[in-house]
Amino acid sequence: MQSKKIGLTGKIVIGMFAGILFGLLLNTLISGAADSWLKLVVVDGVLRLVGEFFITSLMMLVVPLVFVSLVVGTCSMSDPSKLGRIGGKALLLYLITTGIAVSIALTVASIVKPGSGGSMAEQDVTFEAQEAPSFVDVLIDMVPRNPINALAEGNMLQIIVFALLFGIAMALVGKPGDRLKNFFEDVNSVIMKLVMMLMQVAPYGVFALLARTFADLGLGDLLGDLAVYFITVLVILLVHGFVVYPAILGAVTRLSPVIFIRKMLSNQIFAFSISSSNAAIPVTLRTTTKRLGVDSKIASFTVPLGATINMDGTAIMQGVATVFIAQLYGIDLTMQQYLMVILTATLASIGTAGVPGVGLIMLAMVLQQVGLPVEAIGLIIGVDRLLDMTRTAVNITGDAMVTTIVGKSENQFDIDTYNDPDAGLNPDGSLKGGDDDNRT
Ligand code: ASP
Q1: For residues 302 and 294, what is the distance between their CA atoms, to the nearest angstrom?
Q2: Residue 226 maps to a domain
Q3: Given the CA of residue 396, which atom of ligand 1 is nearest to it?
Q4: With a 6 A CB cut-off, is 386 part of the ligand 1 pocket?
Q5: Which atom of ligand 1 is nearest to the CA of 276?
Q6: Ligand 1 centroid vs 272 CA: distance in angstroms?
Q7: What is the pLDDT of residue 3?
Q8: Whose CA is closest to atom 7 on ligand 1?
Q9: Can you tell me where the transmembrane regions are (predicted)?
Q10: Domain containing 188 — which CATH number?
Q11: How far is the CA of 307 from the centre of ligand 1 (A)?
């Protein structure tokens, strides 16, 4: 009876809190002694092993899952020309929501003034900027010269383009396409089964990852000059994830925002603990299709696309960080520079994969565009770990929200699944598997 009440989501939540508490405990016990046995055996031994094992297994599934599910989704579309409309809608929504996110961040940061108390006089920091690729380069780079290479490197945009073209050709070629479709559908079911198997051990993986992160976290940084910056970013992220998204979803689709928040919770904890929208793709795909009721034809396209091009949480950090750094240096940003931040932050996210810490690299592009010192990023690195985790959870929530809106607007959406609190779950709260995964 007991296990009936604590489903997978409950276990993941427990794993998260237990991991954070255990990590904080280790943090105090170790307190700077890098050679303590607790650090060597527990943090860098057991916790690292379990955490890395979990994260690597998840990443192992990303490329095959994205490719196969996208091929299956595309080739079963009755009218492949719809793809353009779906892609257009998703792209527009992704860009608009990122624009909104960074605008909110800039506005709030200008009011809160997180950097007004500090000064850059005697700070010694370094950070190397990378050259920002031009928008045209990003477009050219979307077509893979060598698809096998794209798969091997996990280049998401290239994989998406190749899978879409492959799926369209399968739909057009007739019999050979039908034969291949059965094969890909079977492979898809097998990979989804693997995702489910992995999710059963997720509570332990989440526990280990969070315990290790919090054991190593330099909490001192959070209390110093960076406290206002940290709290400003964190609060905007939380409001964006838990208020703005559900509100947009409710307003556009008339679906219950509360159900959305509830069903996203375990997905958010996943993303929070692994800090990577890309590695979270298998879980986000499962949540959007099995729990939120979006047809996999849509989700298999919009979720990997979102993991790559939609990073609203990251844009929020960039907005606040830009204002923070400008204030530290005593520079007043002009309206034109604000607009530049919005544009660059939105465009920078397009060509950048959702992996841990990539937000800071994108921030370098933004700072460079508006002429602020890029090396100032060195100042905020200390508190970025926790923010990276939180913004990843926001990023994937945005992907799921846009996926739900597109699915609903295309009538590729099952309202009963959305409204059913237990959709995708067995009566004991574990994940449902088997044939129902073979959705086409
Ligand atoms: N880690 C984030 C993601 O994967 C990107 C970032 O903001 O660094 O979504």
Answers
A1: 11
A2: yes
A3: 9
A4: no
A5: 4
A6: 10
A7: 46
A8: 359
A9: 12-33, 53-78, 90-112, 156-173, 194-215, 227-252, 264-285, 305-326, 338-367
A10: 1.10.3860.10
A11: 9
Q: Are 438 and 15 in contact (CB under 8 A)?
A: no
Cα(404)–Cα(385) distance, integer angstroms: 29
For ligand 1, the distance from its centroid to the CA atom of residue 273, given in whole angstroms, is 12
Ligand 1 closest atom vs CA 279? 4
Pick 146 or 140 by higher pLDDT.
Answer: 146
User: Is 323 contained in some domain?
Assistant: yes
CB atoms within 10 A of CB 337: 18
Q: What are the start-end ranges of the H helices in 275-383?
A: 281-286, 296-309, 312-328, 335-348, 358-370, 377-380
330/317: higher pLDDT: 317
Instruction: Decide whether any atom of ligand 1 lies within 6 Å of the 382 Cβ.
Output: no
Q: Is the pTM of this model over 0.90?
A: no
73-87, 178-192, 199-213, 331-345: least confident range: 73-87
pLDDT higher than 70, residue 4:
no
Q: Are 431 and 194 in contact (CB under 8 A)?
A: no
Residue 269: name the closest of 65, 61, 8 by CA: 8
CA torsion sign, 187 to 191 to 193 to 197?
A: positive
| 435 falls within a domain | no
Question: Over 174-201, what HEC string results?
Answer: CHHHHHHHHHHHHHHHHHHHHHHHHHHC
Q: Which atom of ligand 1 is nearest to the CA of 307?
A: 9
Count of domains forming the chain: 1
Q: 281 in ligand 1 pocket by Cβ < 6 Å?
A: no
Residue 438 lies in a domain: no
The yes-or-no verdict on residue 248 having pLDDT over 80 is: yes
**Token pair 């996990």: residue:** 154
Pair of tokens at residue 174: 């007739």
Q: Which residue has the tokens 């490197």?
A: 153
pLDDT tens digits, one per residue of 76-110? 877 777 888 998 999 999 999 999 999 999 999 99
Q: 276 alpha carbon to ligand 1 midpoint, in Å?
A: 6
Whether 314 is in the pocket of ligand 1, judged by its Cβ within 6 Å, is: yes
